[in-house]
Amino acid sequence: MQQLIDYRRDQELALIGLCHAPVNALGHELRQALASACELAASDPAVRAIVLHGRQLPFSAGADIGEFGTPLTWQAPALPQLLVDLARIDKPLIAAIGGVALGGGLELALACSQRIASADARLGLPEVRLGLLPGAGGTQRLPRLIGVAAALQMMLDGQPVDARQARDMGLVDRLVEPGADLVAEACRFARELLAGPAPARPKQGPLDEPSSDFFAAQEAQLTARKPGQLAPQLVLATVRAASELPLAQGLAREQALFRQALESPQATALRHQFFAEREALKIPGIDATTPLRPIRKVAVIGAGTMGGGIAMNFVNAGIPVTLLEVKPEALDRGLAQIRKNYEISLKRGKLSPAQLEQRMALLAGTLDYADLADADLVIEAVFENLAIKQTVFRTLDEVCKPGAILASNTSTLDVDQIAAVTRRPQDVVGLHFFSPANVMRLLEVVRGEATAPDVLATTLQIARRIGKLPVVSRVCFGFIGNRMLEPYAREAHRLVLEGASPAQVDRVLTGLGLAMGVFAMYDLAGIDIGYLVREAMRDQLAHDPSYFRLADELCARGWHGQKSGRGFYRYEGRERLEDAEVVEIAERLAAELGIQQRSISDQEIHDRCLFMLINEGLQLLDEGIALRSGDVDLVWINGYGFPAWRGGPLHYAEQLGLAEVLAGIEQYRDRLGAYGALWLQPAPLLQRLVAAGKTRIEIC
Ligand code: NAD
């Protein structure tokens, strides 16, 4: 068996090194070995203090997530009890934290009497991101150490803090410069403690008493900011317990709430998301042996909304970018916008003046394609027009060096038709960034018919390097995300013609947890953008005169959304107001189209929008456009604001019940007459899954 603990003696000190590569996940075997080692050290009279460290590894990244939902999680020694035992050891027990102490790893450090950390270490309790709460004493010990407000903040954020911040908060007692011998410093610290008069464990003062309305205010804030989310509310309840109950009772309360969180559908959904992110990087035909092309220089064509944001991603990662435009004014505007964005970061204290200049120095503007000759990756972000993009790619084919990867940021166009105008279609790929491109995490990587495996592998790797979550899609109209958006938004628009208001539709969707409703989103993206896409395919849409009719009407009036102060809503500054005139326009259009208006229930809005979204996701899977249902979910969570705690549209479908979704689509299809017969067709995969009695989505 692999040796999980390295136990050494150094005179009066016991050194316990965790050696469970790669990150000292606290699985059952490691817990067992750790318990034995601590018992040995505690019972040995020659040992006066103990140093706990990650032997040449990070201290610990926490619980073994693979154990979740299995009996191993609770098999003795379970982490909560192990940490209670450790906290009882009446000798200084010092956590020497290098790398990370996250989740259960930080809870382990909290059960120690002191903490010393390498200055580049990161400490955090990210459980809330998995729909959980720290369940091994963290919710009780952290507030006792750093105070109620700071502890609550750290657990609700789920974001790690760096060791310096941790020291300032009182979470870490001492810092060690990176590169110094952490274990040696921890031993020195232990000997200092032994030489001093202090007791083995520092006495904890009484917990600071938050004001009487502190918890009520926090609860109101959570309800407003994270409506419907269970884990943050449970975190708050545990911290309240910490402030009101003695430790042992607080720990018992934490246990009960932890189990409640663990068994919740929200935690299942967030775990699904977590594993989907790992899976998304596994692509058939690509593995660790697939060669990668070096990417040292990047070029971006078009310095508009997307081009500028895309360029910033690479510059932020230290990769030089050449930005090409057709006109000098457009180039100047694009570069000025990038500087402005960085200046905002500077004002917010996220960037130093030197960093700003460093980033701008990595950016070169040009009007001349000859300057792209040495680029390893070129990303085109010009107007969404096939002929223009093809012209750009013909030129790229002339000027770029052999082996350069040629990418398009198109949202809807056929990447294969773009690749076809080059003599190197194997080097062409779609890289669909989302707006704002320097912020949004999702990157749809569009694998064309001819895209070479090493091109795909390289783009996946570079996506990670710039902090994106790449999800691979095959070529189709709109790829995964925008193709699903179409039937979802179509139903939303149609529902307004049938008698709902835009605000009612949006309320139902945000009530489900979506970051934005359909109409607020269209107003933000620009109603004219969708109009242009529809114009290009008008002949295919002639059979349904109601199709996005309201959007077309608003566009014709110049009501393009937020940017024009009016769209589906009216805008006063940043405030979004309902617009009675839009509802009147919808009434008039409905009359023209012979649509009988009626009162629409929230349930119908939910069902028709969501079922159509789910249906299209299943169809994409069936067509092989998306590789797996988790990929579809990731696209909607990270690109369209679908709540992660519902696991994405397809996971949500499983929770609703596939048979219920199918029955719902059929019911609305029958009820909606010609419109229903035209659009509400169940995906064959959904029918097959239900016929086979499946409750989980798979290709069958
Ligand atoms: P934009 O109009 O803001 O920018 C386009 C820029 O390209 C302009 O600055 C223009 O001067 C420049 N340009 C046009 N033709 C050019 C040429 N031949 N050579 C060099 N530069 C040229 O548009 P955008 O919103 O940044 O969209 C760009 C691309 O990104 C489109 O394909 C769009 O579909 C896609 N996209 C946009 C979004 C979004 O939300 N805006 C999201 C994802 C993808």
From TrEMBL:
Give the top-rank taxon of the lineage listed in the UniProt record for this protein. Bacteria
Sorted alphabetically, the Gene Ontology BP terms of this entry are:
fatty acid beta-oxidation
Domain named 3-hydroxyacyl-CoA dehydrogenase C-terminal: which ranges?
Answer: 478-571, 606-694
Where is the 3-hydroxyacyl-CoA dehydrogenase NAD binding domain positioned along the sequence? Answer: 297-473
Record-linked Pfam families? 3HCDH (PF00725), 3HCDH_N (PF02737), ECH_1 (PF00378)
The UniProt keywords, alphabetically, are: Fatty acid metabolism, Isomerase, Lipid degradation, Lipid metabolism, Lyase, Multifunctional enzyme, NAD, Oxidoreductase, Peroxisome
Q: Which reaction does it catalyse?
A: a (3S)-3-hydroxyacyl-CoA + NAD(+) = a 3-oxoacyl-CoA + NADH + H(+)
Q: Which residues form a coiled coil?
A: none
Task: Provide the protein's localization.
Answer: Peroxisome
Q: Kindly provide the name given to this protein in its UniProt entry.
A: 3-hydroxyacyl-CoA dehydrogenase
Report the pathway entry.
Answer: Lipid metabolism; fatty acid beta-oxidation
GO terms for molecular function, please? (3S)-3-hydroxyacyl-CoA dehydrogenase (NAD+) activity; enoyl-CoA hydratase activity; isomerase activity; NAD+ binding
